[in-house]
Design brief:
binds glutathione; alpha+beta
Length: 213
């Protein structure tokens, strides 16, 4: 297996956590997003989206989209499971994960932030406001779902880490980078702290990656 990765990519961070939870260590190639390597001819031949992560399976299939990759890993390496057994529970976990992966992350992506700067002409402070505004909007809802549902345990769903936690942790890293006040989100902060006590999350953090700057 080979993972196309970048230390600061939160979508790649999700996949790194899932790989660690499954005890898998694929070969890795680092795509320097700030230098534009995601738009190189070589990488676009792997992933025409020009985004990381991408995972090449042992059979040579190229998988894209972090959540699709994580579900592939979960189906091919079922232990420990990253989704619960009951369909309604799986839907809950996927919904929590998608608050981050579909509603927050895409509008705070590097290419969006760059477009806000050029050609739209917004300065760094305004772009910081945009970034945190959309995280706060998503976190308000996520916090409510977590705080008000008895199915929330030590982690987003029960007492074992799963797909929702895998999405939550990298998004909290992004929020911290832009100094978002986390006090309105005590459940998110508590689950983040619980996750970071696990080696799978800790070893996948951006600063611990070989390409970290
Ligand atoms: N929906 C995709 C998002 C992937 C994505 O947006 N990756 C970001 C890094 S977190 C990226 O490659 N950005 C490069 C760019 O914006 O040019 C997934 O979940 O894998």
């Amino acid at each position: 297996m080979k993972l196309y990765d970048y230390f600061r990519s939160s979508a790649a961070y999700r996949v790194r956590i899932a790989l660690n939870l499954k005890g898998l260590s694929p070969e890795r190639e680092f795509i320097h997003l700030r230098k534009g390597a995601q738009r190189s001819e070589d990488y676009l031949a792997v992933n025409p989206l020009g985004l990381v992560p991408a995972l090449v399976t042992d059979d040579g299939a190229v998988l894209t989209q972090s959540l699709a990759i994580i579900e592939y890993l979960d189906e091919t390496h079922p232990e420990p499971p990253l989704l619960p057994g009951h369909p309604a529970d799986r839907a809950r976990v996927r919904a929590l994960a998608q608050i981050v992966a579909c509603d927050i992350h895409p509008i705070d992506n590097l290419r969006v932030l760059r477009y806000l700067a050029d050609p739209l002409g917004h300065d760094e402070a305004t772009i910081g406001l945009w970034f945190n505004h959309w995280i706060a909007k998503g976190f308000e809802a996520l916090e409510q779902f977590l705080a008000e549902d008895g199915q929330t345990g030590a982690f987003c769903h029960g007492d074992a880490p799963g797909v929702a936690d895998i999405c939550l942790v990298p998004q909290v890293f992004n929020a911290r980078r832009y100094k978002l006040d986390m006090t309105p989100y005590p459940s998110i902060a508590r689950i983040f702290d619980t996750c970071m006590k696990l080696e799978a999350f800790e070893q996948a953090r951006p600063e611990k990656q070989p390409d970290a700057e």
